[in-house]
Amino acid sequence: MAYRETDNVRARKAAQRDHLLHSAEQLVRQGGFANLTMQTLASQAGVGVGTLYRYFENKPVLAAEVFRVATEREVAAVADAMTLHGNFARRLTHVLETFVRRAQVAPKLAWSLIAEPVDPAVDAERLIYRQRYAELYEQFLAEGVRLGELPEQDTAVTAAAMVGAIAEALVGPLSEPLPKSGLAKSLTQFCLRAIGARCETASADSSRQPQSLHKTA
């Protein structure tokens, strides 16, 4: 009779895998993907190196999974921020402030997700990450156009340009010890003007403060 894993065994394996991914992300938070090695992770997680290879074929596979899990959390946070009620400019302000503040809380992780030179496997995930953001922004912008709050425009091109601008604007500040205090406001003003929305003088609803990158979903 073929061996079949019990529910308890599957649960233990899933918990171990989650533990390894959490430990790996902590290493990335501390020093980027360059800081993530199988030997360092084994020490961090309190397991043997052989245990890691039972869950991840090699470091590129591990790094790509760490990237995927972290970016899924960030994309979900942005999608949630887009559900804020109010006019379009206020909603976009909230979205951008959410993204920037989360990045500023964990700048090393954010820089690693956005710009760190990485293995091809991780770079492939990064392309997916940027595409998912672009799709979110395209839907968001299309809603603004449909409601008459934005001028007619090619929302796909605008969304792609916004994603690129946001990422480029963050690269420099995230590499510095202290992120620029006015970054969120400046980036918000730029994006609002670029899409033809009226700039809001007030910040978005302060009762909905963004969770930090330090907190998992």
Can you put this structure into words, describing what you see?
This protein is mainly alpha-helical. It contains nine helices and no strands. The protein has helices at 7-31, 38-45, 49-55, 59-81, 88-105, 107-114, 120-146, 155-174, 183-195. The longest helix is centred in the middle third of the chain and has 27 residues, at 120-146. It is elongated and about 60 Å long. The N and C termini lie far apart (40 Å). The model is unreliable at 201-212 (pLDDT under 50).
N→C terminal distance? 40 Å
Instruction: Calculate Rg over CA atoms.
Output: 20 Å
Arithmetic mean of pLDDT: 88
Helix share bin: 55-70%
* Unreliable runs: 201-212
Number of strands: 0
Oligomeric state, counting identical vs distinct chains? single chain
**Overall shape:** elongated
Strand content: under 5%
Q: What is the count of helical runs?
A: 9
Describe this protein with a few key phrases:
217 residues, mainly alpha, 9 helices, elongated
Summarize the entry for a quick read:
With 217 residues, the chain is mostly helical. The chain has nine helices and no strands.
Give the arrangement of secondary structure elements.
Elements: H1 7-31, H2 38-45, H3 49-55, H4 59-81, H5 88-105, H6 107-114, H7 120-146, H8 155-174, H9 183-195
Helix pairs in contact: 1-2, 1-4, 1-6, 4-5, 4-7, 5-6, 5-9, 6-8, 7-8, 8-9
